[in-house]
Amino acid sequence: MKTLSVFDSSEDITSFVQGKIRGLIAEESKTSLVLEDDPEKFREALLRFEKWFELPSEEKLVTYYSCSYWKGKVPCQGWLYLSTNFLCFYSYLLGSEVKLVIPWDEIWRLEKTSNVILTESIHVLAHGEDFYFSMFLHLNETFVIMEQLADYSIKRLFDKEAFQREPALSDPLQITKRGLEAHAKSDQFRGFFRLPKEENLLEVHECFLWVPFSHYNILGKICLSENYLCFASQDGSQCHVIIPMREVVNIEKPDSTNKALTVCVRGKRALRFSEVRDYMRLSNTIRSRCGISASPQHSASSETIRGECQSLINHFEDNPEDVTLMVGQKDSSKAVSTEALMTVFHPQDVENLDPKMLKEKMKEQSWNIHFSEYGRGTSMFFTRKTRDLIVRGVPEALRGELWMFFSGAVNDMATHPGYYTELVEQSLGTSTLATDEIERDLHRSLPEHPAFQSDTGISALRRVLTAYAYRNPKIGYCQAMNILTSVLLLYAKEEEAFWLLVAVCERMLPDYFNRRIIGALVDQAVFEDLIRENLPQLVEHMTDLTFFSSVSLSWFLTLFISVLPIESAVNVVDCFFYDGIKAILQLGLAVLDYNMEALICCNDDAEAVTILNKFFDSVTNKDSPLPPTVQQAPVSNNVKASHGCVDISELIREAYEKYGSIRTEEVESSRKRNKLYVIQTLEDTTKQNVIRVVSQDVRFTSPQLDELYILFKRQHFLSCYWTMKSPVLLHHDPSLAYLEQYQLGFQQFGILFSLLEPWAFCSPKSTLSLWVFRLIDENQDGLVNFKEFCCALDTLYTGSFTNKLKFLFKMHLPPAFTGSPLHLKEQKIQPFIPLTEDSSLLSRFAAFDLPEDGVIKKSPERGRGKVDLQAYLKQWQNEILKKEETIKDLPRINQSQFVQFTKTLYNIFHGDPEEERLYRAVAHVTSLLLRMEEVGRRLQEPSSPSDSKKPANASSAAVMEESSSEEVCKTPESADAPTPRSSSSSQDAASDLSETEWSFSFEQVLASLLNEPVVVGFFEKPVDIHMKLGQAKVAQLKTKANK
C-alpha cells in the first residue's frame, strides 16, 4: 500500500497492479523453463539427436521441444530438435518411424497458424511441402527460437551484408538459445531507441520515472547499454527518453527510502527513477560507465563540476551555431558545406508577415513550448504530443535538427568526430563503378530545385554520396540514394546529411539499397499483408496484389519523394524519421483508401497507375512557406477538377487516425516472416535462369537439372554450416551473373562428384578428382560453376563413346594432369589435395599469383573496384568465337600420362561383372599401341639399328604386355601401389624405351579401343541418373558426417 500511495489516480494504480501481475507470471514462467533446461536431460537429448539424425559432430543442438507433427490428419507425437542449421523431428510410435531433417536455408514460410483442427500450430513450408507442428507447452517461445534460427541462417548464407554487421553471431559453433534470446532483445532495443549497431542491451530494471510535464510517476523500464541509459513507459508509446552516457554529469546519492536515484544531465536537467529494485548496483554501474567517482569527496564537489560546465552550456545556449563542438566535432574542412542548402537558397525573411509565414512562426512557437516542457536535444522526452506536432508538420527551421534527433544520427555524429571529413579526403578523386554512377545521376536529383542547379548543391551531393560509397562498398551507390540525399541536404548540414543517410541505409531501411533491394521487396510483402487485412473491398476486386508491389516500389525506395511535390514529401520524411517504416506503410494504405472507388472501377493496371499519378499530382502543402521557385510544378486545372486539392497534412492525419493502430512489433514480425519468402523467391528465380542457360548445352531434363542444382547449392552451403570464416561464403556473390553465384572449390567438388559420377572411380580426395576438377575449370580460377559441373556429368552420362573417351583422355593432359604418376610416392600429391576447406582455393596452378587471402575476386567490390568492361567484352567475344574442339586438335599423350590413363580405365572397370574381360581388353590395347609406336619409330629411323639392339627393342613391347596382363589380377588400389614384380617389369620396359620418348594420339587410342566390343559396350551402357540423384540426396550429409 505504501507503494500505491505515490499514485495520483486510480487508473495509474490499476496499470501498476496489472504490470506487477504480468511480471509475476513472467517470473514463474522463467522458473519453469529453468527446470526444463536441466543439463542432464539436455545431454540425453543431444545423444538421441546425434543417434537419430546422423549429422556431423559439429552440428550444435540449440534446444528441443515435445510436440506433434501432423502427417496428413494424423498427429505423430515426438520431439522437435532445433539445431544451428537444421529443423529436425523424430517420432516412433507403434512401429512407425517418422524422421524429418529440414535445413533452415531451404524454408520458404515459417508462421503461426490456427484452423478448425489445429487451434494453434507452427506451419513450415519447405521443398514445396507443408509441415505442421502443434501441442507445444510453450508455443510462442518455440516459434521465436525457430524464427531466430531461420533468420540467422538466411543472413549468414544469403544476406552477407546484413550478417557482417552482427559479429555476435558469426561463429555457428557458439550459437546458444540464451545467446539468440539476448541478441533478439538487443536488436529490438536498438530498433526502438534508434541506437548504433554496436550497442547491446546489458540490464533491464523496472521502475518509475518522475515526469515533470505531467507531474506524476510513470511506470516503465530502464534499459542500459554500453553507452546509453534509456527509459520507456510500459506501453512504449506514452513516453520514452534516451540519455547518452556522455551527457551525464552526475549521479546523486541514491535515496534508500524510495529506492530512487537521480541522474543529472547537461542543460540543468535531472531525471529521477524510483522503486528500482537494485538501485545501488545500477547507480554504481552508471557511475563507472560515465567515469564518475563514487567517493564522498567527489559527491561534495558535484556543484563545482556543474559550475565548470555551466559556462560552456551557457555559451552554447547563446551561440547555438557552435553546438557541434558539444559533441566533440572537429573543425570541418573548408571543402565541406556547413549550412543547409535551404538556408543558402531560401533564407527566411523575418519581416515577412504573409499568412503562411505567420503559420510557420506559430509552428515554431509550438515546438519551442514543447522543448521547454519536454527538453531539447539528445535527452528530450518522446511523447504522444511529440507525434501530434510531427503530424501537423515540422517548421522549416527545425527540420534538420529534429531529423537528426529522431533518427539517432546525432549520436553517430557525436561518437565519430572528424570521420566524415576524413572520408571526403580519402574518397576525393577515386574512380570506381559507384563514382561513375553517381556522376551520371547528380544532375537528375531534384533538377527543378535552384540548389541543384548550382555547383554548390551538386558538389555537396557528390561529396556525401562518394563518401558513403567509400564507407560502405558493399552497397556503394544505388539509384534512389541521390534523390533521398538531395532532400537531406536541403534541411541538414552536409555532415549531418551524411549521418542521416547512414541511419537510413544501415538501420531504418536495412537491405534497401543493394543490387537485389531485398529490404524494399520485404516491405512490399508486408504492405500486401496490410492491404489484405485493412482494405478487404480492394482485395475482393483485385485478387492479384502484385500490381501494388510494382507501383509502390518507388514509394518505399524514395519515401514518396519521387511521386509527391517536394514541399509535401518533406512532411512524409518528418513522419518517417519519427515512426520509421510504419509511417510509410500507413500513408500507403491511406492513399489506396482515398482512391478506393476509382481503383475498384479500373479495367486494367494502366488505368490504376494513371489514377494514382493524378492523385499524387493533386497533393499540396497549403502551409508551405516556400516560394513558387522552390515548389514543384503547380497542379493543372484538369487535375483540380477531377481530384480537387488534397492537403498533405490532412492525408497524414487521416493515415494516423485510421491505421495508427498498426504496431511496430507487428511490422517487424511480418518483416521476418516475409523475408524468408522473398529471399527464397529470388533464389528460385536464380535457379530457373541457371537451368534455362545450362539446359541448352546438356541433355539432362529440367527436373534432373533441378535436382542437380539443389545438390550443387547444398554442397556449397555444407562447407559454410560449421565453419566460422569459410572461404565458400566469399564465393557466393549475388551481384555476379546467375551462373557465378554458387561455385565449388576442390574439396566440395570432390565430395559431390564422387556421389554423382556414373562409374564410382573417384574418391573425394583422389588425384583423379583433382584432375577432373582442373579439366572442367575452364577459366582456371580454382572454382567450378554449375554449368561446368553439369557439362562434365552430361558427357559421362549421355555422351557418345568418343566423347566419354575424349573426356578421360583430356584428364591426363595438362593443365588437368601434372607431374609423373609413375612415382607417386616420390611425387607426394599433398600439394594438389587441400586438407581443409580453408586451403581449398590454394590448389591451383603455380602460374597463378594469388592475393593474400587466397581468393580470386571474380568481380571487384562495388564501391572500391573499377570493373574492366573491356576485359569482360573480350572474354565474351572469345566465348562466341570459340570453335568446337575436334579430336585432331588434341595433343599426343606421352609415356607417363598414358600409363596413368590405363590405370584410370582399370579403376573405372573395377567391380563390373565383365571386369576380367575389360582388364584383358585394356592390356591388349596397350600392347597393340606400344607395338604400333615401335613400328612407326623404326620406319622413321634413317638407318637400321645394329643387331645387338634388335632383341632389346623387340622384347620391350612383350615386357609391357606382360606388365599390362599382370594388371588384370590387381585391384585399383594395388594399381596405384604396384607389386615389386610388376614395378620392376614396368621400370625395365621404361628403361629400354627411355632412349626415345614415345607418345600416342587420340585417334590411335580411339581406333584401338573401338576394336574391343566389351569396352565399347561398357561405355555405351546407360546409367540410371534418377537412382544416382536419389542416392546422392541421402548420402550428401552422411558423407560430411563420416569425413
UniProtKB/TrEMBL annotation:
One of its GO terms (cellular component) is cytosol. It comes from the Eukaryota. InterPro entries: EF-hand-dom_pair, EF_Hand_1_Ca_BS, EF_hand_dom, GRAM, PH-like_dom_sf, Rab-GAP-TBC_dom, Rab-GAP_TBC_sf. It holds the Pfam family RabGAP-TBC. Keywords: Calcium, Cytoplasm, GTPase activation, Metal-binding, Repeat. GO terms for biological process: glomerular filtration. Residues 937-990 are annotated as: Disordered. Residues 393-580 form the Rab-GAP TBC domain. It is found in: Cytoplasm, Cytosol. One of its GO terms (molecular function) is GTPase activator activity. Residues 764-799 form the EF-hand domain. Involved in vesicular recycling, probably as a RAB11B GTPase-activating protein. This is TBC1 domain family member 8B. It comes from Gouania willdenowi (Blunt-snouted clingfish).
